[in-house]
């Protein structure tokens, strides 16, 4: 299930729950579903029976202090220095309706605020029923049958008679409870918890609580107080102001919930539109890929037919050559077996010419399956129906005469030093190959010693290039042959010289003799450069200067190169005795 669907379902359930909460009975407990018995209000404004709340399991984040410690084994000194233990943490419960965490007062469930409104609702609910079953508000034992309109209490038969006998209450109007069935509102006195015989008619301003007359002469005797009728306007207005703010916030939340639903609906529509785009794209892409697949298979089949035709032609040529050879062999065998000396000598020229021609005829006597057909999934194949497609059937083959060799060790290398070069394969159109797999063979053997062969290793780079590596163990001149499909590549065979050791330079790597010698006219360089004005050496931009930094001993422009001076002291340019040495 998507987040949007879950949010919409949650909003729908909340919207359904709001009217249900408004229509639910205010006289019945949400837990036991019975009429409230001693209803208590939680801070979250949900009301439950006292007995139902006492069934809930209380909890605390902290353990009781000292329950894991044993102070009986401590000495008097240690006990005297013990830190005072903090007070026991307050217990909490979770509201069964909204899961709000409720901290219980020190006295527990019984100290929670009593819901007197719920008690009145219970009274009205009971009065509307067939059987009353109300307890007397005075004796709490007998069943109430009448109601005092002045005292707003329910009375049993006995208490009603006593009520009439007392001078103070004899004139109070008393009605039958049955006559109150049609009432929608009944006032019921609220008695003081500390003084059950007194009604709460006063309000202590300092303690912000309702009190009775006994309370103001006792515990609250020094506190400012007033009648509830005199202070109700001030406190009622404060509550009404909070109610007004809360109602505004509710309307804001209702608007936000509606907007969330609208946004969720718009999001669902947008996601569905994107899903349709994805499906359309995927269907079009699949269609383009399938068409490309069919084209590739058709092209492959055409190549197959072409290759089979070439094989059939080759087969026909070989078969014709075989028949010609068979005819020549049969004729020659018959001549040698049955012919006379003169007949053989007379026919010798024709037979020799025919057999020599058949023997020297150029033909491929090793037909193999053409594996040059290759599928490249990474190669771009163009755009079909607006989609870029990859994958192509390749039929490129390396052409030996177009393949080239590259590397610094082609002409010479040194004894016991790893060396190598690179073979770059190209097709008949002189285009580089972009795949490997070509049969490459390399042979390196000494020109003077047939038993001296260098073993070469061929590494396929899978990109049309091949690295040939080897380590020559004996100095001398070697013949190097590189074959692709049994034929020499361009530049093969070639001669490679293996030298005994690396000859370091004995001169300096400089820009010119003018700079390196400090302007000496007699300084010379192996690059054969000269400057006007009587200078024997080279200078920037003058005749003979190689145009780059170079060695003064041999003129080489490669700083990490080998000196070209031969062991006898002769050089390819000038004598090292006349070069500049800093």
Q: What does this entry look like structurally?
A:
This protein has 582 residues and is an alpha+beta fold. Among the domains are: 230-359; 404-499, Immunoglobulin-like, CATH 2.60.40; 504-582, no CATH class. The chain contains 9 helices and 25 strands. It has helices spanning 3-23, 50-54, 76-80, 116-128, 157-165, 213-216, 228-338, 341-359, 513-516; strands at 39-41, 47-49, 92-94, 101-103, 113-114, 146-148, 153-155, 174-176, 202-204, 209-211, 225-227, 374-384, 387-394, 404-406, 412-414, 419-424, 440-446, 453-454, 457-460, 465-470, 476-484, 487-488, 494-499, 509-510, 550-551. Strands 15, 17, 18, 21, 22 and 23 form a 6-stranded mixed β-sheet that branches. A 4-stranded antiparallel β-sheet has the order 14-16-20-19, with no helix packed on it. It has a 3-stranded antiparallel β-sheet with strand order 2-1-5. A hairpin with a 4-residue loop joins strand 6 (146-148) and strand 7. Helix 7 runs antiparallel to helix 8. The chain is elongated, with a radius of gyration of 57 Å. The model is unreliable at 17-23, 63-82 and 569-582 (pLDDT under 50).
């Amino acid at each position: 299930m998507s987040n949007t669907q879950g949010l919409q379902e949650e909003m729908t359930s909340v919207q359904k729950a709001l009217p249900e909460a408004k229509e639910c009975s205010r006289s019945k407990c949400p837990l036991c579903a019975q009429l409230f018995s001693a209803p208590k209000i939680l801070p979250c404004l949900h009301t439950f029976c006292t007995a139902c709340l006492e069934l809930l399991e209380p909890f605390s984040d902290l353990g009781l202090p000292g329950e894991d410690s044993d102070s009986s084994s401590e000495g008097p000194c240690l006990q005297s220095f013990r830190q005072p233990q903090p007070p026991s943490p307050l217990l909490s419960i979770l509201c069964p309706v909204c899961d709000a965490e409720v901290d219980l007062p020190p006295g527990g469930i019984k100290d929670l605020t009593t819901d007197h409104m719920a008690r009145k609702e219970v009274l009205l609910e009971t009065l509307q029923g067939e059987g009353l079953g109300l307890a007397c508000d005075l004796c709490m034992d007998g069943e109430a049958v009448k109601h005092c309109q002045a005292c707003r209490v329910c009375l049993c038969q006995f208490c009603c008679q006593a009520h009439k006998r007392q001078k103070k209450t004899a004139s109070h109007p008393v009605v039958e409870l049955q006559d109150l069935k049609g009432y929608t509102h009944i006032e019921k006195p609220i008695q003081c918890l500390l003084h059950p015989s007194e009604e709460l008619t006063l309000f202590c301003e300092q303690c912000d609580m309702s009190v009775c007359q006994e309370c103001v002469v006792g515990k609250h005797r020094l506190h400012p107080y007033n009648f509830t009728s005199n202070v109700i306007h001030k406190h009622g207005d404060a509550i009404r102001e909070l109610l007004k703010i809360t109602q505004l916030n509710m309307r804001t939340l209702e608007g936000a919930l509606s907007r969330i639903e609208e946004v969720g609906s718009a999001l669902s529509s947008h996601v569905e539109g994107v899903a349709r785009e994805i499906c359309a794209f995927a269907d079009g892409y699949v269609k383009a890929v399938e068409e490309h697949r069919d084209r590739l298979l058709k092209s492959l089949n055409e190549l197959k037919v072409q290759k089979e035709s070439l094989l059939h032609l080759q087969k026909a040529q070989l078969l014709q050559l075989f028949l010609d050879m068979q005819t020549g062999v049969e004729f020659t065998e018959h001549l040698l077996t049955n012919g006379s000396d003169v007949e053989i000598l007379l026919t010798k020229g024709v037979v020799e010419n025919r057999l020599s021609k058949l023997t020297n005829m150029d033909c491929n006597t090793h037909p193999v399956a053409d594996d040059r057909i290759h599928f490249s999934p990474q190669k771009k194949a163009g755009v079909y129906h607006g989609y870029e497609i990859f994958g192509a059937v390749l039929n490129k083959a390396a052409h030996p005469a177009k393949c080239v060799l590259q590397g610094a060790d082609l002409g010479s290398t040194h004894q016991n030093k790893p060396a190598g070069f690179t073979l770059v394969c190209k097709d008949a159109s002189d285009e580089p190959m972009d795949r490997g797999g070509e049969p490459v063979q390399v042979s390196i053997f000494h020109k003077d010693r047939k038993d001296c062969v260098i073993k070469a290793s061929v590494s396929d780079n899978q990109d049309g290039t091949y690295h040939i590596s080897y380590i020559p163990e004996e100095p001398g001149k070697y013949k190097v042959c590189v074959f692709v499909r049994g034929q020499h590549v361009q530049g093969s065979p070639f001669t490679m010289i293996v030298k005994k050791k690396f000859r370091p330079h004995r001169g300096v790597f400089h820009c010119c003799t003018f700079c390196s010698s400090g302007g000496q006219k007699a300084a010379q360089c192996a690059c054969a450069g000269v400057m006007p004005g009587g200078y024997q050496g080279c200078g920037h931009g003058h005749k003979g200067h190689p145009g780059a930094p170079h060695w003064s001993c041999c003129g080489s422009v490669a700083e990490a190169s080998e000196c070209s001076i031969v062991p006898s002291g002769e050089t390819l340019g000038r004598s090292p005795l006349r070069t500049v040495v800093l």
